[in-house]
């Protein structure tokens, strides 16, 4: 059974009061998404892409312009937020400062008039799961950011919601705490097996947490798939450059035919990369497109390498790995190596590219150009 | 451009000793990074160099000149801040020209135009000159702030977390560009950051600052491979280095380390390394802390010779690779794995530590004692110094 279904969802903010009409005023445009029961789905995109609007429509905090939302089998379009059976955890913790942690976690059930014993049983049950058992007597001001967020999530899941919605719950935390909290959330969701929609602009967070990622840009769904799918098989240039750090190298290229073999060539550069055979049906001599290749798939060749000689423009030693930048025309092409050698600017290396890992994108639309079957 | 020296600089804010005897010697044309956690005193050091803060004790020298009593305007330093501090009502061009038009410089408009043209080209922002700050993205604003610092020929560039405001992607690409730019300019630069990747990538040398004191000064390689204590070791590297307790016992022809994994004692042979063995003997070492980087921890999902058993605490992607965290009782072990594995949380995992990559720390003081293959890392660090 599907945990959450979005059916042709639209959101248009009313801007009739504004002098200037915004041309593309759909915050969310024809969004279709099916999350399976128990699945952890991340809505990922740059700020202003409509991901939080989507979440708020699911929660019932924002009116829907068009389309349908199902939680389980229930159509919830017309339901009040409190009747949708959802748990919410937002970026800022919104705790009641005069109540201690126990009071905060229990607040909702107390308001509903759940018997005291049952509240107590439930709080005691969830506290060790969220590792807040020794914090129950503390006041919110005494808690660290990570602890507050744990309480916040405990409060959201104590009601055993059908659907858990989280909006950038980690963006308040600093690097170390964020990393630790990410691990905790991952473990927790794994245990409670609740369908979860998680909004983030951090591709790393989405990649590490989610079972599936929905990448959104300008209110339009770009791709919906597992982390491996969106990483290895991006639908378009936007997804390719948004997922992965450092991002995929994307270069404009003209394909040439040399005695029956096709090569990518680049303006103001000697670099030539063989076009994978599987693309032969879609390319031709003089074909213009963009070529994408991830920095891990660009390699430094050995002494007898056939690769092109290129001068190093930037060398960054990051301890665990080293990043090298080479100028191809006016684009800085990055490669990552764990090679222990310390290069410096101006050194010449042989550049090799794992040809089979290259992707082709349309030069105008940015859509993936795929081989024909 | 100049050599910048600080000798035993002290500065207190009320009862808080913000700087407690800072001594650094930044060479001419060096890219020097001040790196440490929030509140360490990094920005205060920068302010003392700029003249914004007055040290109570100690000497600030530019070249051979003592600058303690020189006011900020006459120190000829250029500062770049985290929040760009642009004049909102001025165009980018006027923002960049503002310093040169001041009473202090009174440069002619032709000269200003020439300097700005050059700076804009260096920062790749020629197309932005007519815009107002409100029409710029955050990355562009920071570019303008840097360009504005560039138009003067300052003694030193002081940069206070200039990339911290930017999102991860932009931060990384700007970092790469900054490195390229600094190499082209050949200017002295003192750079404050709390991001270890920035420190490693940019710094010719790095000073690790904590609680107003200098913990260690060295090249990135020195600090990464031979951190002077556990604090420094944990600052460098993502994911963090694994550090856990061990007891050392002599065997027939060497030493063993015994560690505790989920209540069980595991014996690991310490491979032969004359330097390490002599340090162990010298100290009569019984207990120590072992540090091992995540890339030197190997895993298997089947029982294997030389591997010990633990359970998976989590498995998560960190971009181009993933981290498996294994539960070991009092501590957790992080190890590097490829993306896209099918790893069940709480399932069994078998672990091997590459003992010939470990760093030994003192059990009590947490200070560095010795690491495997020390000589080759000293040589590696020295090779960088020679450049």
Describe the structure in your own words.
The complex is a heterodimer of chains A (373) and B (387). Chain A is α+β, with helices and mostly antiparallel strands and 373 residues long. Chain A has two domains: 4-15 and 22-242, P-loop containing nucleotide triphosphate hydrolases (Rossmann fold, 3-Layer(aba) Sandwich); 249-369, Beta Barrel (OB fold (Dihydrolipoamide Acetyltransferase, E2P)), CATH 2.40.50. Helix content of chain A is 23%, strand content 34%. Chain A has helices at residues 51-59, 101-112, 116-129, 145-157, 175-192, 203-209, 227-232, 237-242, and strands at 2-12, 26-36, 40-44, 66-71, 74-75, 86-89, 163-167, 195-200, 212-217, 220-225, 249-258, 261-265, 272-274, 287-293, 298-300, 308-317, 322-328, 331-337, 348-353, 359-361, 368-369. Chain A has a six-stranded mixed β-sheet with strand order 6-7-8-3-9-10, with helices on both faces. Chain A has a six-stranded antiparallel β-sheet with strand order 13-12-11-14-20-21. In chain A, strands 15-19-16-17-18 form a five-stranded antiparallel β-sheet, with no helix packed on it. In chain A, helix 2 (101-112) packs across helix 3 (116-129). The longest helix of chain A has 18 residues, at 175-192. With 387 residues, chain B is an alpha+beta fold. In chain B, helix 2 (92-101) crosses helix 3 and helix 2 (92-101) packs parallel to helix 4. The two termini of chain B are 19 Å apart. Chain A binds chain B through residues 174-175, 179, 182-183, 186-187, 190, 201-202, 204, 207-209, 227-228, 231, 244-247, 294-296, 313-314, 316-320, 323, 325, 332, 334, 336, 338, 340, 342, 344-345, and chain B through 38, 167-169, 172-173, 175-177, 179-180, 183, 195-197, 200-202, 220-221, 224, 236-239, 293, 295, 313-314, 316-320, 322, 325, 339-340, 345, 380, 383-384, 387.
């Amino acid at each position: 059974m599907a945990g959450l279904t979005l059916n042709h969802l639209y959101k248009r903010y009313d801007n009739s009061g504004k002098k200037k009409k915004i041309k593309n005023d759909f915050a969310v445009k024809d969004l279709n998404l099916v999350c399976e029961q128990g699945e952890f789905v991340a809505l990922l995109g740059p700020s202003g892409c409509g991901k939080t609007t989507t979440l708020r429509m699911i929660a019932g905090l924002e009116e829907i312009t068009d389309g349908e939302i199902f939680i389980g089998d229930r159509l919830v379009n017309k339901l009040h937020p409190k009747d949708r059976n959802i748990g919410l955890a937002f970026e800022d913790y919104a705790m009641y400062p005069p109540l201690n942690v126990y009071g905060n976690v229990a607040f909702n059930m107390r308001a509903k008039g759940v018997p005291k014993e049952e509240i107590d049983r439930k709080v005691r049950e969830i506290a060790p799961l969220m590792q807040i058992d020794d914090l129950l007597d503390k006041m919110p001001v005494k808690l660290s950011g990570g602890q507050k967020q744990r309480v916040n999530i405990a409060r959201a899941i104590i009601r055993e919601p059908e659907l858990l919605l989280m909006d950038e719950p980690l963006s308040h935390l600093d690097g170390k705490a964020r990393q630790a909290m990410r691990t905790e959330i991952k473990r927790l969701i794994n245990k409670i097996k609740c369908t979860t929609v998680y909004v983030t602009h951090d591709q790393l967070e989405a990649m590490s947490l989610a079972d599936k990622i929905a990448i959104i840009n300008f209110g339009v769904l770009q791709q919906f798939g597992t982390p491996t799918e969106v990483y290895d098989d991006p639908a378009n240039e936007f997804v390719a450059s948004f997922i992965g750090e450092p991002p995929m190298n994307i270069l404009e290229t003209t394909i040439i035919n040399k005695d029956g073999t096709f090569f990518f060539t680049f303006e103001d550069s000697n670099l030539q990369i063989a076009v994978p055979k599987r693309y032969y049906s879609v390319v031709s001599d003089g074909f213009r497109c963009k070529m994408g290749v991830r920095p891990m798939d660009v390699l430094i060749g050995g002494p007898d390498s056939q690769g092109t000689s290129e001068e190093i423009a930037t060398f960054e030693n990051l301890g665990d790995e080293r990043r090298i930048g080479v100028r191809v025309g006016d684009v800085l092409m990055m490669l990552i190596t764990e090679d222990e050698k310390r290069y410096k600017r101006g050194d010449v290396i042989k550049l090799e590219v794992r040809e089979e890992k290259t992707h082709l994108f349309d030069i105008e639309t940015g859509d993936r150009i795929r081989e024909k079957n | 451009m100049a050599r910048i020296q600080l000798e035993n600089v002290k500065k207190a804010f009320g009862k808080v000793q913000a700087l407690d005897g800072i001594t650094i010697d930044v060479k001419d044309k060096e890219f020097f990074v001040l790196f440490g956690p929030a509140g360490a005193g990094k920005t205060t050091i920068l302010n003392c160099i700029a003249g914004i803060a007055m040290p109570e004790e100690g000497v600030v020298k530019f070249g051979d000149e003592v600058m303690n009593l020189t006011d900020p305007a006459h120190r000829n330093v250029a500062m770049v801040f985290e929040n760009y501090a642009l004049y909102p009502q001025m165009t980018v061009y006027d923002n960049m020209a503002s310093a040169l038009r001041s009473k202090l410089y009174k440069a002619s408009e032709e000269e200003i135009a020439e300097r700005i043209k050059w700076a804009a080209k260096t920062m790749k922002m020629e197309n932005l000159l007519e815009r107002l700050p409100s029409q710029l993205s955050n990355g562009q604003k920071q570019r303008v702030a840097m360009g504005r610092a560039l138009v003067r020929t300052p003694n030193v560039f002081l940069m206070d977390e200039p990339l911290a405001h930017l999102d991860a992607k932009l931060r990384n690409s700007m970092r790469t560009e900054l490195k390229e730019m600094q190499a082209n300019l050949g200017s002295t630069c003192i750079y404050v950051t709390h991001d270890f990747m920035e420190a490693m990538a940019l710094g010719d040398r790095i000073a690790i600052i904590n609680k107003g004191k200098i913990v260690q000064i060295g090249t990135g390689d020195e600090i990464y491979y031979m951190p002077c204590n556990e604090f420094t070791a944990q600052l460098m590297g993502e994911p963090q280095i694994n550090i856990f307790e061990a007891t050392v016992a002599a065997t027939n022809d060497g030493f063993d380390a015994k560690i505790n994994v989920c209540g069980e004692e595991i014996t690991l042979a310490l491979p032969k390394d004359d330097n390490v063995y002599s340090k162990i003997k010298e100290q009569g070492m019984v207990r120590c802390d072992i540090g091992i980087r995540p890339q030197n921890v190997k895993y298997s999902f089947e029982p294997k010779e030389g591997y010990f058993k633990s359970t998976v605490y989590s498995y998560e992607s960190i971009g181009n690779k993933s981290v498996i965290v294994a539960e070991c009782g009092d501590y957790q072990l992080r190890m590097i794995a490829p993306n896209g594995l099918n790893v069940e949380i709480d399932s069994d995992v078998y672990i091997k530590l590459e003992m010939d990559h470990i760093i030994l720390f003192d059990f009590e003081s947490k200070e560095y004692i010795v690491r495997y293959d020390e000589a080759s890392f000293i040589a590696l660090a020295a090779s960088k110094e020679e450049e």
